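Course exercise 7: structure representation. Students receive a sequence record and must write out the corresponding structure in token form. The form below is the worked example handed out in class, using Nitrate ABC transporter, permease protein (276 residues). Read each field label carefully; the graders check that inputs and outputs are placed in the correct fields and that the protein name is recorded exactly as given.

STUDENT ID: A-19
EXERCISE PROTEIN: Nitrate ABC transporter, permease protein
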Amino acid sequence: MASTSVRAGMLSLVFLVLFLGIWEFGTQVIAPQQGELSEYELLMGGADQEARVPPPSEIIRHAVAELSDPFYDRGSNDKGIGTQLAYSIYRVLTGFLGAMAVALPLGFLIGMSPLMYKALNPYIQVLRPISPLAWMPLALFVIQDSEQSAIFVIFICSIWPMLLNTAFGVANVRQDWVNVARTHELSPIKTAVTVILPAAAPTILTGMRISIGIAWLVIVAAEMLVGGTGIGYYVWNEWNNLDLASVIFSILMIGVVGMLLDLALGKAQKLVEYKE
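STUDENT ANSWER:
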């Protein structure tokens, strides 16, 4: 097992070096001809000749500079990458925790009661396919606050995977375990906490992992719409400045943070699976 992991890690590193080498070589050799503008640049009214996809070496230099002081704040349009990520993570976790507070109890209710499942399922099936960003105009009108509207959108997109996975996990708990709890005259709440919750926990955490991934995707798009602060706004602002090194660096940071969020819930899922 260990040797396989080491070989996989080495192979992954080889792929990375090869990819970066091709990228670096391509940006140095296949460069735009001086004095020529692309069709897009002509439509934009001309562009700086240096506005091009930067090589990896330039992005690495930019990353070192940004990460050396990630939390600076020099005004509304000049904040460090750490500050921007902190705003986005705060919004994601706030909306995610709000969704969890609603989805878990409601999922238990739906999973334990066929009557409630049949009564609520039509509403779930209508609301679930709606794009989270479609709620943004209504949220902005009703809430009249861009940050709270972004949190509401995260709440909406996070609730459905957790709700459905919780209901599925609860409904599929082995019936003989529930019967044993009834034999011991446990109350419905105690049965839910001591018997059903541990059995359904891996499925519930799967829904939570799906939800946090969707939430992190959506917050970037939401912040591009509402502006102000956050990693989505940072990407859009740097694009407007034609600073492609910052754009690519921020895209990589989005991926890293998303991976860390998923890893955290993945570790929790392995713990409950082990204890099960």
